[in-house]
Amino acid sequence: GQQLNQSPQSMFIQEGEDVSMNCTSSSIFNTWLWYKQDPGEGPVLLIALYKAGELTSNGRLTAQFGITRKDSFLNISASIPSDVGIYFCAGRGGGSNYKLTFGKGTLLTVNP
Amino acid sequence: NAGVTQTPKFQVLKTGQSMTLQCAQDMNHNSMYWYRQDPGMGLRLIYYSASEGTTDKGEVPNGYNVSRLNKREFSLRLESAAPSQTSVYFCASSGTGDYGYTFGSGTRLTVV
User: Dihedrals φ, ψ of A106, to 5°?
Assistant: First the structure.
């Protein structure tokens, strides 16, 4: 089946720093999504990308749908303590395949 | 508030006991999903239901059964709990043409 490689597995940064994480796939996806999971909660959708090359922002978050359709990147600028959590990428193939494939997540810790 | 509701939030079982995890959504979504989350393993799909009346196995279905009771409700049953089923369980739903999933807040299950 499809697999997503998400990196890094974890990051420990200082407040105010920028953060980058990415996901790569062995197969093409038509949709890329990024979720954040706060401690003790379920994942919440941050950004959805629907077209190769698309660059989308949501506040301090920016995500890109790679040109090859096999990768995606998430950047967080000027991190703050509430950015702490697990960030998941997810991808969906085409056709009737509506199921998402999830990466294993990036655990972000922000030191105030 | 609209969304996905999971019950219970916490549960401790003895090995061999059975229980049902409940999930309900009020967004008129067609598809529903059950995931388990373990440290370092990300989100793994247990079962899903593309629409009312259908269910299919996901990546890790062994030891579980599901019932799509109606469009709103999708339950997960452990017939004979094992310590390996200690995990956090998430229910999610998605609508037609809606590429994102909405997750519940999870059930933390411990099997001793």
Answer: -120, 120
Taking the CA of residue A23 and the nearest CA in chain B, the distance in Å comes to: 13
Q: How many CA atoms does the CB half-sphere of B74 hold within 13 Å? A: 33
* Local structure of A82: helix, strand or coil: helix
C-alpha to C-alpha distance for B110 and B41, rounded to whole angstroms? 17
Residue type at A23? C
All residues at 6 or more sequence positions from B88 whose CB lies less than 8 Å from its CB, including other chains: B36, B37, B38, B106, B107, B108, B109
* Min Cα–Cα distance to chain A from B57, Å: 12
pLDDT by residue for chain B (112 residues), tens digit each? 679 999 999 999 999 999 999 999 999 999 999 999 998 888 999 999 999 999 999 999 999 999 998 999 999 999 999 999 999 999 999 987 766 899 999 999 999 9
d(C-alpha B90, C-alpha B75), whole Å: 11
Q: How far is CA B49 from CA A46, A49, B11, B32, B34, in A?
A: 24, 24, 24, 5, 9
Give yes or no for A43 touching B (CB within 8 A): yes
Q: What is the CA radius of gyration of chain B?
A: 13
Q: Which structure tokens are listed for B49?
A: 């239901």
Interface membership of B43 toward A (CB under 8 Å): yes
